[in-house]
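Contributing: when you submit paired examples, paste them exactly as shown. First protein:
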Amino acid sequence: MRWRLQNLPSFLLLELALFWCAPAAAKEVIHIGSGEWPPYISEDAPHFGPTSQIVTEAFALVDIDVEYHFHPWNRSFVLCLQGNLDATIAWEKTAEREPNFVFSEMPIITERTVFFYSKNNAQSLDEIWSPSKEPKLRIGGILGYNYGDKLDEAERKGLFAVRRSDSEMTSFRQLIKGHIDLFPSDLVVGLEILRKHFDAPERHQIRYLPEPLRIAKLYLIFSKKTPRHDWLKAQFDKGMQQLHDSGRLSNLQIDPNLSPARISAH
């Protein structure tokens, strides 16, 4: 005997109707502050850049959606610090930040900072760090950027004359024009800026020293002001481990040795 809906008791029909009409449970959403740092991270890039894609895919593996909020970097940091955002992407672990944030177990980027210079004004590492170097080298820098303890200490001792600007593009222009002698930048970021914003004759003038000024691991950091921070960190760590174990993580990460930019290391 075949059952039809009209053969069911009315209370069962009501329960079935409620079941079919009930909305699916809403997925968890994390709100992440970000900024522009191409090619790693960009609002205009597919998936907001490969580093953002790593974070998105790690959370997707644990059934969490990601919403990115793009601001100037300092603004994203402050919004996260205040608890207005759950997390912010690509920050170094420091003692000053640890009271206010928890850090992902795995880094999402390994930043490799090198010195760029003009081929018409070549510098060796021995010359750069020589305390007797005269005249003092003019080092470019970006306002608000941290280039590590070694460069900070040299600046405090007066080894360099540091000239800070508002962008990498400005500093590379100064380098090409001979207004500065060296410009430290993440290798991948520097090569991308030269590729996108400078023509071939300009790029041909630029070289970089392959020995890194610093190597820094950058993390996804979670605000302790938000009640879910420990849970979100644990879920992200779980997703990152799955990405790592599957080999997907290494496929998404940028290898600076494979950069297509035609800039020489000397």
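Second protein:
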Amino acid sequence: MYCMKESDVNSFFAIVCGYNPEITIGIMLDDILKTHLKEKNTKNLSYVEKVDTIIRIMNQRNELAKPLPDDEFGDFAEFMKDEEPSTKHAKQHLYICIHNIDGPGLRSKSTQHLLSVLSSNRYIHLICSVDNQLSNLLWEPSIEDKFGFMRFNITNFCTYFAESEYYSLQDLYNESSDGKKSSEEKSLGPVEIVANILKSANKKHRQIYMIICNKFIENEKYNESEEGSSQPKPSGSTHQEIKSSMGVYSTDDALLRDGLSYLENQIKVIKKKQNTFIPTLKRNQCEKLLVILNNS
């Protein structure tokens, strides 16, 4: 999370990277209180108390202000200009922009409820995007009413460069959870990271990935055997092997190529090795991941 701009004493704009799995409602509330509202003694407050504090401060700062005719919700266009601060608007407004409000750290019902309470305040404005087409399942009618969303379809097919940078490839190659870390730091290991990514992928992509994982585990075990030591097999799966495993009529070459490209180039959970595809995880990690995916 980071602050993009503070135009003047009447306007605050915070940006939240929801696709970062480490971002939580607690981090977001602390940043708003400390960075924007300059409140320091909030460490021991609960999440509900922090939300109440933000709303109370915004209401107190605005209760004596007299808005100009078009200032009911803040002059957003004026706020975005790179000009000298304007003092003609007395009201203060907080704009919160969340990229992927359905991100892994923000999906819980309690988090969505707290965000809806914030956005229901007349001086706090929530601007957000969603990544998953089923993201509307996050919200019950009562919570959605509090959000009061105005929806705009801006579907795009951009590569997930910014999003994927938060899924550390170093964690995917190493057993980071076996290091000397606290229980909180170990809560999101490489297996959980890939599991969260694949849960948001479609069924065909998950099927392709699981075939690659199973073949990888099978070949690794064979290569450790006495027979495999003399005649080792490649660890990965060829394009034809994946297609055969999916069934002759289950997919065509174009769909399979698109799926492999998505897994390799966009979410980066497989890689090419000697014209075969292998997971970026180690064998024991793949075994754990398959258990999670089969039970989800």
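If you have annotations for the second protein, write them as plain sentences, like these:
The domain at 166-295 is CATH 1.10.10.10 (Arc Repressor Mutant, subunit A).
The chain has two domains: 2-147, 166-295.
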